[in-house]
Design a protein that fits this description.
By secondary structure, this protein is α/β, with parallel strands linked by helices. It has 13 helices and ten strands. The strands form two sheets. An eight-stranded parallel sheet has the order 3-10-9-8-7-6-5-4. It has a two-stranded antiparallel sheet with strand order 1-2. The longest helix is centred in the C-terminal third of the chain and has 33 residues. The termini are far apart. The structure holds flavin mononucleotide and 2-OXO-4-methylpentanoic acid. The site of 2-OXO-4-methylpentanoic acid has 7 residues, from loops. InterPro entries: Aldolase_TIM (IPR013785), Alpha-hydoxy_acid_DH_FMN (IPR012133), FMN-dep_DH (IPR000262), FMN_HAD (IPR037396). One of its GO terms (molecular function) is FMN binding.
Amino acid sequence: MNSHQQAPPDLSTLVNLFDLEPLAAARMTTMAYEYVASGAADEFTVRWNRQAFDAIRLNPRVLVDVSQLDTRLSLFGQELPYPILIAPTAFHKIMHPDGELATARGAGAASATYVISSFTTTPLDDIARVASGPLWFQLYMSNDRAYTRDLIQHAEAQGCRALCVTVDTPVLGARNRQQRVGFALPDGITTPLMPNAMAPSTSLTWHDVAWLKSVANVPILLKGILNPDDAELAVQAGVAGIIVSNHSGRNLDTVPATIDALPRITERVAGRIPILLDGGIRRGTDVLKAIALGASAVLVGKPICFGLAYGGAAGVTKVLDILRDELELAMALTGRATLADIDESVIWRSNR
Ligand SMILES: Cc1cc2nc3c(=O)[nH]c(=O)nc-3n(C[C@H](O)[C@H](O)[C@H](O)COP(=O)(O)O)c2cc1C
Ligand SMILES: CC(C)CC(=O)C(=O)O
């Protein structure tokens, strides 16, 4: 490490989430950086997630009273001050020595909900002890139902208020950049909830969703929906919500950007259950666009990892604060004082 890398983080220099990545990269091992930053195969979907947001233009209204902005929402019986959650990401201890404890502290300071990954490198009880904000749990189901039931009950007992069941990962994608660096967890870092190397549950089907419902006492969301037909099946299966996600382009390359997939899913779901979205959210305007096209809330993955790597808990809080402030700016400047005011009319349609 050179002296520049050892200087304490200066979060005051951070004005947006894009500034963060090089600062974080300088403090991460090559392996950790490649793990976080990379996508699958040729990374088309990674790029499309961003390009699709950038291509959407906004259609502002003026002379609207925006002196009282209200970003609150109610989701699965929980009151959220603003519609941005921390997406589940694995292995926080490779990003920062305090790992998931720092993430939980940072989330709490920003009053954000933290969705803990099944691949947490910190036991859930330790995270729960330091968390001052709401916790949800992301579940990778194994074929071992007794194990999965115990895990769900453990997460519930630790206060996790919802279960995000990841359904887009029967196998991992072709993660070439991870392969090139020979990604592996460093000695001494373990995943207490997934003691064995990931044995993906390739045999999961909709029947397992019925079983999950019979086991869980908290709302179940299916994470990784891109196809409106699957969104329909999710509604039929009686889950509480879905997360439109392409896993940040880390699994199947050349699937569309999530914001491009959202409108058809919104149309099919027709308000029957809440839709959340992740993938490429980096600006407050991205959050506004997702809400305009039918999302109730969004989740953020990579920027949280980079915030954690650069500044620990304070870095996580900073990422959330920046996005939240930018969302408020975007609302004021488009003349939308509440989330309910952010409807499709805020999207510029060139033929109108
Ligand atoms: C480093 C990293 C680790 C991830 N680990 C998980 C995981 O353990 N479980 C999961 O369901 N999704 C995982 N994801 C996907 C995120 O939950 C989320 O879908 C995605 O990161 C959102 O896109 P964004 O990173 O562009 O914001 C991971 C993503 C990243 C970048
Ligand atoms: C350990 C992995 C399965 C976590 C994950 O979902 C990811 O890296 O995208």
